[in-house]
Design goal:
- By secondary structure, the chain is an alpha+beta fold.
- It has 2 domains: 18-176, Up-down Bundle (Four Helix Bundle (Hemerythrin (Met), subunit A)); 191-279, SCP2 sterol-binding domain (Nonspecific Lipid-transfer Protein, Chain A, 2-Layer Sandwich), CATH 3.30.1050.10.
- The chain is built from 11 helices and 5 strands.
- It has helices at residues 24-37, 40-43, 54-73, 87-102, 107-123, 149-171, 179-189, 193-197, 247-254, 260-264, 273-279, and strands spanning 207-212, 218-224, 229-231, 241-244, 268-271.
- A 5-stranded mixed beta sheet has the order 3-2-1-4-5.
- Strand 1 and strand 2 (218-224) form a beta hairpin.
- Helix 1 (24-37) packs parallel to helix 6.
């Protein structure tokens, strides 16, 4: 019997691996500069996160560092799920509990703690084999499987970057969206393409391309293979569907800062409508 071209355990359909560890300090430095420049009233501004002000998003970012150090570094167990609780409900509950408690902390203390713990959280990733199983699901990209650690790290990076941008949007301060920091966000969010396209029937060899113009952009291609859609180098020939999505629209769409209908007004599409509509429903966060 011939060996299959790709072993059944391969997750190469997620696309080539990335190592975003070098960017963690850079992204956090931009966050700390932002937080340090906020006035008292800006900390109280509402954000796109329902019920959360700027200070609450900062507290949520601190919570992520604490979870990383407590659970991944120190092996301390995470809070248990309630009976019948789904993952989105669990995350909403534990995140909300921490944010409520952290409202007792001053903006200066929140900023100091993020700065102090950030380097320790970064160090917890050092020396790890990013090809090893993550031990935690990235449901929007690889549902039902244990993905490689690099994908879990990339998801963590996109969460921190996106929340920083939500703060920037709330206080009207652009920044931290240059190619170095933004392109990995777009690349990670688009790892959701195979899962997003899965419900759409298509013959093997069908291709869908997403082009993001600008210095942070690029071209991503999903190809229908016998078992699933997969992220692959663009094959010869025209795609069955193609989309041209501005970078600022793509990250806001994937993180549901804007809806598919709102995004569609700024997206150029061509080809099979069922495929382009599916891409416009892409979600790259747990919800």
């Amino acid at each position: 019997m011939e060996s299959p071209s790709r072993p059944p355990t391969s997750l190469d359909w997620l696309g080539p691996p990335t190592d975003l560890r070098p960017l963690l300090p850079t992204e956090r430095a931009a966050l700390l500069d932002l937080l340090g420049a906020l006035g008292p009233n800006e900390w109280e501004r509402p954000t796109v996160c329902p019920g959360w002000q700027v200070r609450d998003i900062a507290a949520h970012l601190l919570h992520g560092q604490l979870r990383r150090l407590s659970h991944a570094r120190d092996g301390h167990p995470a809070p248990p799920f309630a009976d019948g609780e789904t993952l989105p409900a669990y995350l909403a509950r534990v995140n909300g509990e921490f944010v409520t408690t952290a409202r007792q902390l001053s903006p200066r203390l929140l900023t100091d703690l993020i700065g102090h713990l950030g380097s320790q959280a970064d160090a917890s990733w050092a020396g790890l084999d990013l090809a090893a199983p993550a031990g935690t699901e990235v449901s929007w990209a690889a549902p039902g499987v244990d993905p490689p650690l690099w994908l879990h790290l990339a998801r963590e990076y996109t969460e921190a970057w996106t929340h920083q941008q939500q703060i920037r949007d709330a206080v009207g301060r652009p920044g931290a969206d240059g190619p170095e920091l933004l392109r990995p966000v777009l690349d990670t969010f688009l790892r959701a393409l195979p899962t997003t396209l899965a419900p759409v029937p298509a013959p093997d060899g069908t291709t869908v391309t997403v082009t993001v113009p600008g210095p942070a952009g690029g071209r991503w291609t999903a190809v229908r293979e016998p078992e699933r859609w997969a992220l692959r180098p663009a094959p010869d020939g025209p795609p069955a569907a193609q989309l041209r999505v501005p970078a600022h629209v793509l990250w806001r769409l994937a993180s549901r800062v804007i809806t598919p209908d709102e995004a569609a007004a700024s997206v150029e599409t061509a080809g099979e409508r069922a495929l382009t509509d599916a891409v416009l429903r892409m979600v790259s966060i747990v919800r």
